[in-house]
Amino acid sequence: MKRIKLNKFFSFVRSYFLSGLAIFIPFIITIYLIVEITTWLNTFVNFTPARFIKFPDFVDPYISDFLIFLLAAIFFVLFITLIGLATKNLLGKLLLNAGEKTISKIPLANTIFSTMKQVSKIIFSDGPKNQKAVMVEYPRKGSYTIGFATQDIKNDKLTKIPVFIPTSPNPTSGFLIFLEKDQIKELDISPDDAFRLIVSGGLSINEEENIKKYQF
Fold first, then answer.
1. Which residue from 41, 86, 161, 184 has the least number of CB within 10 angstroms?
2. Residue 76 is assigned to a structural domain of this protein
3. Contact, 133 vs 189, CB < 8 A?
4. What's the confidence (pLDDT) of residue 3?
5. Contacts of residue 174, Cβ cutoff 8 Å, sequence gap at least 6
6. Is residue 47 part of a domain?
7. Alpha-carbon dihedral of residues 6, 12, 15, 21, nearest 10 degrees?
8. 158: left (phi over 0), alpha (psi -120 to 50) or beta
9. pLDDT tens for residues 145-192?
10. Residue 32 within a domain
11. Please, what sign has the CA dihedral across residues 158, 159, 160, 161?
12. Residue 121 belongs to a domain
């Protein structure tokens, strides 16, 4: 009897511990990322014109530090935007290709760069062909996996479609497979929802979504 009660107690603690962990971990990761980004931006201040700005003495030092940090963040956004803009013209494309060729000649760095480039394209690209969440029968018959079609499925010139399959819960690594079009099932979910599903290990699906979107 005591053993049964003890098992129930441990089962009770385990259940609520896992529930608490599921709530606690996202908060910790979010706070950690905010702290890391804030620290990085504070370092970035030293490389922007914001560090040369001088406020009057009557301005509280905390306020002036915050304003400088805010300006640095704005400079950072503008800097990244200009990089994206530069890659749209001929000179920018030439410089980008030169940089990629240089990295491709460096062992290990080329593997990391190519993987991160692929993932970044899937996450940030505006083009629908790089943003389509799909479900494929992989790695064996009867087993299905969520991936991302990196080319337009409706493109008649392609006989096989490349599909990037991220690993869970770390979507920065994965597999690239080529499949026939009839082997690919397009999902009625956004890439963001698909990534949340992968990172959460399926916990982000509720019962209604599971019936409507993941059964075929």
1. 86
2. no
3. yes
4. 65
5. 119, 147, 164, 165, 166, 167
6. no
7. -100
8. beta
9. 889 888 877 777 788 888 988 887 767 678 889 998 889 988 888 877
10. no
11. positive
12. no
